[in-house]
Amino acid sequence: MTCAHCGNVTEQAIHFCSHCGAAIHDGVASPFEDIQLTFLRVDLSGFTKMSEAMIAEDVMAVLNEIFRIFADTVESNKGTIYQVIGDEMVCIFGLDTESGFAPHMAILTAEDMFNKLHEFNKTANLESPIGLKVGAEIDSASIFDVQRDLRNSLILTKGFRKSQILQKNASNNTILVGEGLYKMTKGFFSYREVGEFVEESFGVKAYEYRLKLKR
Amino acid sequence: MIKCAYCNYSQNPENAKFCTKCGVGLKSESDSVAESERLRLLGGELRLLTVFFVNLTGIEKSIRKDTYATTKQHVQEFLSSIEDIVTEYNGTFNRIIPDFRILGIFGAPHAHHDDALRATRCASRIRDWWLERKKESKFFKDIDLRIGLNTGRAFFGFVLKESPFLTVIGDTINTAARLTEMSQHSEILMTRPTYNVVLRHIDAEHIGEQAVRGKETKIDIYRLKKIRATPRVVEPQRMPLFGRESELNRLVNLAQDTIQEAAVYCILNGQMGIGKTRLKEEFEVQLHKNDRISLFETNCSVEIQSPYHPFRAVLRDILQLHELDSQEITAKRIDEMFAHEDATRSPAKGAKHLLLTDIGRLRSEEMRMANEEIYASVRDIIRNECRKRPLVIVFEEFEQADVMSKDLATYLMAELENEPVMFLLINIPKQFFDGISVDFTEIDLKPLPKQHVRSLIQHILGNVDNDLVDFIYREAGGNPLFTIEAIRNTRRNKAINQVSGQWHLVKEQALVFLDDLYGLVMSTIDSLSPDPRLVVDYASVIGYRFSLRILSELLTRPDLKEHLDYLIAEGYIVLSSDGDDPVYIFRHNLLKDAAYNVLPVRKRKEIHNKVATLFEQIYSDNLSSFYEDVAQHYLASDVYGPATKYFKLAGDKAKNLYAIDQALSFYEQVIDITKQFGAQLPESLHREIMLNLIDIYEIKGDINKMEKTARERLKEALQDNDQKNAVLFAERQAYGLILLNNLESAEKLLSSNIEKSGEQMAEIIPVLYADLGMLYASKYEYDQCLFNFNMSWRTARANNIKEAEIICLLNLSKLHKSLGNYEKALEYLQHGLEILIETEDIRRNIELQYLTASIDYEIWNIEKAKNVLTECLMTADSIGSFDAYIRSALDLAHIYSLNGEPDHVNKYLKNVDKKISFLIRESLLAEINLKKALVYYNSQDYKKANDYVVNSMRIAERLNQREIEFQCYELLSIIDENHKMEHVRKALGLAEQMKLPPLIAAALYRMTLIYLENNDIERARHHGRKALLVFDDIKSRLSNANRQHYVKRPEYTRLLEI
Q1: Angle made by CA atoms B822, B823, B825, in degrees to the nearest 5
Q2: Tell me, what's the pLDDT at B7?
Q3: Most exposed among B152, B570, B883, B1050, judged by the fewest C-beta atoms under 10 Å?
């Protein structure tokens, strides 16, 4: 079997090239092209401001603790953490075909994060509680140089940008989803239409998910 | 087959980088270890960073099913190209793929002194790359690149330990992100904090304050136009140089011409204000025009002396290190710089002693070794540098340099005299050169003659009348600084005025402020307007040199940098080193002193306290470079606890650099503070100081004080039941007692402490046994001596204390050599060279090699001894080992003098004289003098031989060096015609007292010869037979091969003839 990406030859039947890590479908290297993925962007609100009054070790300890809780939630809902950008986490759902209802799992993950953060705020004894702003959307994507942990893979999609615009425009402690995700999941969850956000001629219709928080 | 840690699939090929089942990267074990180590070190730091985002905007629009492949290729190219550029500038990057952004980070995990400038240069380079690429590619046509830079503190670290992500958090990052969003059409925007740091290196346009999303306050923004090829220099508004043309030409000639032939050493002296600094500056301007000459300058003025301060500065310049770089960066740079050198002889070792701080308790031998390595390193580094390009090193205010630096300068002048190097020493009496056998040039600046004073006045005022010139010349006396200040003052006080374009004297009034320097300097400072004056006030509390970071924390003013530039332009201060944290120096020490002295005491204390804490906060990763300063600032603010702590650390630092007097003064300072102000010093700290003080007294030869201090502290430690320190003090006291020849008390003390020392004090037991061995050697009880040296060796081996083992081995081989057991001695040395001592430990290797050669000489294997000594000599020179060099050179001179080869003899003697410096311990002086005496005797210069032997005898008697005393008598019995028998009898008496067979044989042989000369054949035969018996006994203990050499000893063959 020859990898079409790097030319590495192997006699075994394999899923990924041992030399470059490219995915091999039916014996040839190819990207995951044009697959539907759900993108979830979660930003901690008020964290940066609060961190300025803390010592470095405490800042990293708090951030680690919150992200560890979130990582467990993402993993248990069959999602993948793609990147952490400062106090923002970018997750992808739908990569693992066994997961089934990936778009729904993304919403449930976000809701779970709110509940767990609420618990964390109660016990962490912080100066002010940390909030969340969440944006999510489903879109087609292609993934190159795939590896299971995704870290070094390049993903081309408009989904990142759309979910970013939604996340930026979300009020504190709300989840905004795009039109695609809304259509896929409206039978299961309740939403409120918010309107359209446009950034640099990039428009996204937004719906606010009605959070069911455990208090 | 490799097993995947992620999915446990174990059929991956051996060379696989990725798991063939799940695609996860397969990391080697060493990678994982390195990564976890890195994470452990990095987890969560607050760092001063300069960051930028590079955003690629508009790319989303091109993402379509039919363009995936092209888009992927371009995005990949974009990301990897940007990352390559960031890496090129030693930055860290964070790829933010979801947003097509890259975050460039400068200042973590490794900080550089010029991170802001690196980041700005890197951003500019990225833009250049982008503009080129955009021209070539249709794909990027509608895509825009945006860059925004900001500088400030941010948290840097890794989150999610199991699967870590590098993350940077803080308002600094958010501001950079917002700024990047505001940028348009490939422009680079930067905030004021970044601009302030790099302003001299760039051209930028001030956009002004703008509101940004998510921030309550507006941010001040600059647009980068270009990076300047050469930094904008704040040029002092210097006067032309009046009346110093000949001196300037002389200096330039020395630097450009004379230097080609040999080293140039020049001193520049003259009263304050006479123009030394101005002449030096003009000289430097001339040198800068000549790119064939390198120039380094170091200012020796410090508030509190720190060992080798001026040389540390020179070395940093040569190694391209900023003076505030952390210890980590310094160590890395030294390793990089000398990576290609032979590790055993690399100058890296000495450079590290000098630039990194070790405060552990080193024994005197280790301290000497470290210091010798410093000497060799500095010599080699300067020599390498000047061989690339002739080198001029300017030492400003050299009189104020610490004693260690002055000694090092002396050594360097002798060592580098044939190299293209020039030392310009400013402000140092010419007596400094007394006792240094090198030529030097003195330039002593005298007051300017009247015509030059007139030119100076005319330059400042324009047209002036003669009365005014006469008046100022009379008052200022031809001193340029006084002249300038006299003009400023008379103009300010309207004592002169301008009529029809010409300046006149209004009233003749004595300028009393010129009567003393202080008045003059105060007048200069008072002429400053309030804002720059305030800067001078605060800076004066920090010190002669002050960093912008400390000053800006004390004086939080947006226009601080402008005031500093003004002070540079007006000649009050000079920029010493640039970068993110520039360092300034007062141009004249008196300026600083005067400004400091007029500050209210309470205010001064308050500032001192702030400065001390700022040093601790800002330079925490390089604090050891500033222990003396921090201590002084705390002391000046009456905060005694921390002051004692830092003085103690400064003492430890100085001691390990062999700056004994400085160490002593720091430790005494601690004791004074505790006594005077009742500052509480923890007992452990107090005992550490005492142990160090005892070591210092030993090195200084004050054995009585050493013994007394150890005795008193031993008593205290016993009262406090502090067993460990009690044993340490007991060992020191016993050692003192041995040196004072109070052997009985020493023996009791050592024996009782060997019993007391338990396993937890294992490291001291070999030392106690070694001391006992030495004690019995002093009593000439060699069986006991051997027993204790052996015990010392055994305990050192059992506890794996290699250094102690080596010392035992040396002791044993020396003892066997003295006893004439040459084979046994050689056996020990062989063991040391082949098994015990690492090949890299060149110093110890030479020590053992030298001892081997000296035994070869005794056996009369002269050729072998000569070869080994020649090798020792060369190696000792390359690593800067003074003792080994001098001993080897003298022994070689001795061997060549036996063969009658005067050229070789003179060459070695000359080399020895060059090396003899303060570093030569007193105990070696008797040996040096004796060896010189032997060489001169063999060369038939009996007068010199006599002088040296008498000198040697005097020292040996004082230091109780019996073997040397014996050899002196032996030589005197040959030279001193009138008292031959008297001397030989004394020699024999000593030999019998010491019970050393080779000495007994030598004395008997001398006696035989004297009887022969006196024609007393019977007595000659009697003593000759006795001598031969001893020689034969020694011979019988030799191997067959060595016996062949031994029988050729002149004494032996002569005795056989008799």
Answers
A1: 65
A2: 53
A3: B1050
C-alpha to C-alpha distance for B421 and B260, rounded to whole angstroms: 9
Residue B683 in tokens: 């007992």
The dihedral built from the CA positions of residue B736, B738, B739 and B740, taken in this order, carries a sign that is positive
Crossing angle between the packed helical segments B660-677 and B627-636, to the nearest 10 degrees: 30
**CA quadruple B404, B407, B413, B414: dihedral sign:** negative
| CA distance between the termini of chain B | 84
Q: Is B5 an interface residue toward A (CB < 8 Å)?
A: no
Contact of B4 with chain A, judged by CB distance below 8 Å, is answered with no
The minimum CA-CA distance between A148 and chain B, rounded to whole Å, is: 5
* Predicted local distance difference test score (pLDDT) of residue A149: 56
Query: Which of B226, B55, B59 is closest to B137 using CA atoms?
Result: B59
Q: Are A176 and A207 in contact (CB under 8 A)?
A: yes
DSSP A171: P
Prediction pTM value: 0.64
Kind of pairing, strands A88-93 and A154-157?
A: unpaired
Neighbours of B568 (CB within 10 A): 19
pLDDT one-digit tens code per residue, A166-212: 999 999 899 999 999 999 898 888 999 999 998 877 889 999 998 87
Cβ contact B20–A57 (<8 Å): no
User: Is omega for the bond preceding B231 within 30 degrees of 0, making it cis?
Assistant: no
Would you tell me the crossing angle of helices B1017-1036 and B1050-1057 to the nearest 10 degrees? 130
Rounded Cα–Cα distance for residues B807 and B365 (Å)? 11
**Three-state secondary structure of B420-432:** CEEEEEECCCHHH
B811 close to B771: Cβ distance less than 8 angstroms: no
Place of tokens 């010869």: B1009
Contact B75 A154 (CB under 8 A): yes
CB pairs under 8 A between A and B: 158
Instruction: Quote the CA–CA distance of B1005 and B1001 in Å, as a whole number.
Output: 6
Does this complex have an ipTM over 0.85?
no
* Rounded CA Rg of chain A: 19
The whole-chain average pLDDT of chain B stands at 87
Chain B residues with CB under 8 Å of A55 CB are 46
Q: Which of A1, A6, A14 to mutate to test the interface with B (most CBs of B within 10 A)?
A: A14
The tens digit of pLDDT for each residue in B132-153 reads 988 888 888 888 899 999 988 8
Q: Compute CA B97 distance to the chain's CA centroid, rounded to the nearest angstrom.
A: 47
Which helix (H) or strand (E) element contains residue A44? strand A32-45
Is B56:B130 a contact under the CB 8 Å cutoff? no
Show which of residues 74-113 on chain A sit within 8 Å of chain B, judged by CB atoms: 81-87, 90
- In order, the DSSP letters of B842-867 are HHHHHHHHHHHHHHHHHHT-HHHHHH
Beta strands in B864-984 (DSSP E): none
Mean pLDDT of B196-200: 81
Q: Mutual orientation of helices B364-388 and B403-415 as an angle, nearest 10°?
A: 50
A2 and chain B: CB distance < 8 Å anywhere?
no
Q: What is the DSSP letter of B445?
A: -
Whether B37 contacts chain A with CB within 8 A: no
φ/ψ of residue B910, rounded to 5: -65, -45
Q: Are strands A202-209 and A191-199 parallel, antiparallel or unpaired?
A: antiparallel
The residue in chain A having the minimum alpha-carbon distance to the alpha carbon of residue B26 is: A18
- CB spacing of B17 vs A49 below 8 angstroms: no
Task: Write out residues 154-193 of B within 8 Å (CB-CB) of A.
Answer: 155, 157, 159-163, 165, 167-171, 173-174
CA B102 to chain centre: 41
Residues in chain B within 8 Å Cβ distance of A1: none
Q: How far B834 CA lies from chain A's nearest CA (Å)?
A: 47
Whether A210 and chain B come into contact, CB under 8 Å, resolves to no
